[in-house]
Amino acid sequence: MHFVVCIKQVPEGTEVEIDEEKGILKREGVESKLNVYDTYALEAAVALKEEFGGSVTVISMGPPQAEAVIRESYMLGADEGYLLSDRVFAGADTLATSYTLASAIRQLSDADIIFCGMQTTDGDTAQVGPGIAELLGLPHASYVKRLCTLEADAIILETDMGDGIESLKIELPCLLTVTNEINQPRLPSFRLKQGTKNRPVTIWDHQALVGAKQGYFGLDGSPTQVERIFPPPKSQEQVIWQGTPFELSQRMCAKLRELKYI
Amino acid sequence: MEVCPFEGITMEGGQVEFTDACRLCRVCIKACPTGAIWLEQSDAGPILERDKYKDVLIFAEQRQGRIQPVTYELIGKGLELARCLGQEVIVFLAGRDLKAQAHELLLYGVSRVYLYEHKALEHFRIEPYTSLIVDLVNDTLPNILLMGATPVGRSLAPRVAARLRTGLTADCTSLSVKENGDLVQTRPAFGGDVMAQIITPRHRPQMATVRHKVMASAPRLAEPKGEVKECAVDESKLKSGIAVLKFEPYQITTSISDAEIVVAGGRGVGRPEGLKLLEQLAVEVGGALGVTRPLVEQGWADYTMQIGMSGRTIRPRLYIGCGISGAIQHVAGMRGAEAIFAINSDPNAPIFDIAHYGLVGDMYEIVPHLIAMIREGDDPNGVFQLS
Ligand SMILES: Cc1cc2nc3c(=O)[nH]c(=O)nc-3n(C[C@H](O)[C@H](O)[C@H](O)COP(=O)(O)OP(=O)(O)OC[C@H]3O[C@@H](n4cnc5c(N)ncnc54)[C@H](O)[C@@H]3O)c2cc1C
Ligand SMILES: Nc1ncnc2c1ncn2[C@@H]1O[C@H](COP(=O)(O)O)[C@@H](O)[C@H]1O
């Protein structure tokens, strides 16, 4: 079977500071890393490969330096990696991102199960996975927390629906977005690090995606536009209350009500 | 250059260069005093005929026949947006045997409920739900389509958006409309450190998801308004590659990572019964119970309940910490909470540096009062009570 995993390089930590006076963003020493939820997606694919045979291909859309996460995935058991990198892809919202990734997966042509993380830590939308599934016309399940049985043409799994667990049987090919409960990702292997040093990472630009519409990539293919970025509303007031336990409870209860928490 | 959040601009020999780190976020364009930076964007796609699109369509999510409360919140916001534009709120509802629920929805001021009933729609399955909503959108041409940011909504909305080729903004914390009907969608970005204002100027419907408890619920009216329109379900739309084998509802409250409200206890709890008290508080406010590491080490709580650097990171809407000093390793896992309440007997505890509301006192004296007061305030005719 052929397992495809979509992985993304994200900024380490999400600490962005706002210069209050100038109203601008400051971002010091941005280190990048593999989106943590994608490590679960990759582990799920590699574990299936080890049990049932086949291969694992990772795909990432991002700038050239995103090659680092593909190299990292080689140390975690991926066999092949594609980096979709092109100025034309820049500025993509979730629809354009889904479109680009879906075009690449279509090009690979033989994916049986596509894995995505349940969300990214920077975009944090959880939209890209279902978007890819739609554009490929495949069934999908979000928030998969357990894989139960893999059959020749279907997979049985459990998803977290927030209010309970749903068991589903999904026909292959399909797309799954996985939660961090699905497994315990392994650590990068030193042996694989050595062994995959010379393994190539295939770079695809928009021309490599045969049949895709250029107007659907990047900024031009993104229906949403960021109009403005601004600091979050001043973290409310910061107050310290003193008083009798009864008074304190009263104030807190009134505040909770005012803020509509209760 | 320092304006760029991504370090995407460099200066070389007096020339401004954009690096691959540039994400076209356009912050620099707005900041540039001389207007020297602009973005060339091909005006792809036809000009939008804004007047063709009217009304706010709400996806009414039902689970096991029960309308999810986020639906009433979406209706509340939808009515507000529709009022600004002189338009109406219409609702999509699908499932099995839902006539009573459809009429219940009319009590919240919506103009029309489009009801799709079929036994194959009893459980949420992605393909039929996507097809039916897309059909309704194509028939009614709504200006705005709102869904709850629930597991179902977060799975469904991106598929509907992709099929319609329109924009979708996740987890909006505020929504308003411009006079021309454009929806102004505000959501946290970069993990909540900044807010982004997003528009979908050239596509319709403008789609957004909103989390539960972010918007105020629509009030329930004494008399229903509007009508239920029963829609025929085209069998060909019911095809799906998914079979729902089983659904097992959770018995207990959800895990702390997903919970919107978290009550957390620290070493100040002192004894295991103290955690029971906090658990009661958690139940009262509809939240989950979390702890600091010492309590896990004591064996009083499960590791899955640990908040912090070596435990879970949480970003609830409300965090109530009791008997917690506020050590950096704990704070690292909860500082993203929208509102932080802290109860600690030591006025110098570091937790008060990050708490929005600090209560200096003994949790054993405060929490029981608090529980009683919250309970007293319960309105038996509350808006979520379905008849
Ligand atoms: C590598 C590393 C990783 C760690 N990871 C984590 C982690 O992930 N999560 C985590 O939580 N910790 C973690 N820790 C531990 C952390 O450093 C602190 O030790 C821990 O958070 C302290 O927990 P606490 O606030 O409950 O206890 P304490 O620091 O002992 O504070 C108890 C507080 O309760 C108050 N108090 C006492 N009685 C009452 C009362 N009756 N009513 C009200 N207030 C009262 C006291 O004034 C005091 O401020 C980690 C430490 C290390 C070294
Ligand atoms: N640029 C990208 N390249 C590859 N995969 C991506 C990219 N963006 C998102 N994904 C996948 O989609 C998932 C959800 O991302 P998001 O919708 O941004 O929260 C991630 O966990 C990845 O699996």
Q: Which spans of chain B have pLDDT < 50 for at least 5 consecutive residues?
A: 379-387
Low-confidence stretches of chain A: none
User: Strand share of the residues of chain A?
Assistant: 25-35%
Oligomer, anyone? Answer: heterodimer
Q: Would you state the CATH class of the largest domain in chain B?
A: Alpha Beta
What does this structure look like?
- The complex is a heterodimer of chains A (262) and B (387).
- Helix content of chain A is 27%, strand content 29%.
- Chain A is of the alpha/beta class and 262 residues long.
- Chain A has a single domain (2-216), classed as 3-Layer(aba) Sandwich (Rossmann fold), CATH 3.40.50.620.
- Chain A has a nine-stranded mixed sheet with strand order 11-10-9-12-8-1-6-7-13, sandwiched between helices. Chain A has a two-stranded antiparallel ribbon with strand order 2-5. In chain A, strands 3-4 form a two-stranded antiparallel ribbon.
- The N and C termini of chain A lie far apart (50 Å).
- By secondary structure, chain B is α/β, with parallel strands linked by helices.
- Chain B folds into three domains: 1-41, no CATH class; 50-238, HUPs (Rossmann fold, 3-Layer(aba) Sandwich); 256-377, Rossmann fold.
- Chain B is 26% helix and 25% strand.
- Chain B has ten helices and 20 strands.
- Chain B has helices at 27-31, 69-85, 99-106, 126-140, 151-164, 272-285, 293-297, 328-331, 351-354, 363-376, and strands spanning 9-12, 15-18, 56-60, 62-63, 66-67, 89-95, 112-117, 144-148, 168-169, 174-177, 183-189, 194-199, 206-210, 227-231, 242-249, 261-265, 288-291, 318-322, 339-344, 357-360.
- Chain B has a seven-stranded parallel sheet, sandwiched between helices. A five-stranded parallel sheet of chain B has the order 17-16-18-19-20. A three-stranded antiparallel sheet of chain B has the order 10-11-12.
- In chain B, strand 4 and strand 5 (66-67) form a beta hairpin.
- The radius of gyration of chain B is 24 Å and the shape is globular.
- Mean pLDDT of chain B is 88; it is low at 379-387.
- The complex binds flavin-adenine dinucleotide and adenosine monophosphate.
- Flavin-adenine dinucleotide (FAD) binds at residues 266-268, 270, 292-294, 306-311, 323-325, 327, 329-330, 333, 343-346, 349, 362-364 of chain B.
